[in-house]
């Protein structure tokens, strides 16, 4: 049968059903963290590139390196202490509040409320990578002939940077986003464990402790499948950003 991965030794149910039940939570966390990391990283990179020798550029560099150096589980614990214990703004963990039944928009908002801290924690690792890459790419693009031509035509600094330069500067960032997607999934294991997020990460930890081999193999298979699809989507986005790239059918 298609996708028949056997039965879980620990849960005594189909591995495929077990994984498909947990997969949406992991995808929600991973995609949210990626989008957050890319957005913050690109914004910081552009700010740093506009004045590469200024205080802002050095501050962004130091901030990015601190975020990259901090262990993801430590970052998660610190956020829990600050925003869940000291300032009870966000819930400590879980996907939603199981003590209250919610439907529709209320349920979605509850999930988003629980998603904030885990997504920030997971994104913190990759903000440094994207910001440094965006800064270097933007500096390279700002020195191009067409950018100098745009400045000579009297266009404002905002239009030159965000309309003409940014689009080409995003190409290396998009490429890197596809390459590190497997690392995002790996980081999600720790983040899900810290925040009790009911995704593939917590399932993997439970399966390893229980020596549930079919479940572990199933998680590896589905994780690999997600990475392949993510790289395919990256290629499609790359083509949208850079119209010069054509497929064999064009």
Automatic annotation (TrEMBL):
InterPro entries, A to Z: MetI-like, MetI-like_sf
Domain annotation ABC transmembrane type-1: ranges: 23-238
PROSITE patterns listed in its UniProt record: ABC_TM1
Membrane topology type: Multi-pass membrane protein
GO cellular component: plasma membrane
GO BP of this protein: transmembrane transport
Subcellular location: Cell membrane
Transmembrane segments: 25-47, 59-91, 111-130, 169-195, 215-238
Keywords in alphabetical order: Cell membrane, Membrane, Transmembrane, Transmembrane helix, Transport
Protein name: ABC transmembrane type-1 domain-containing protein
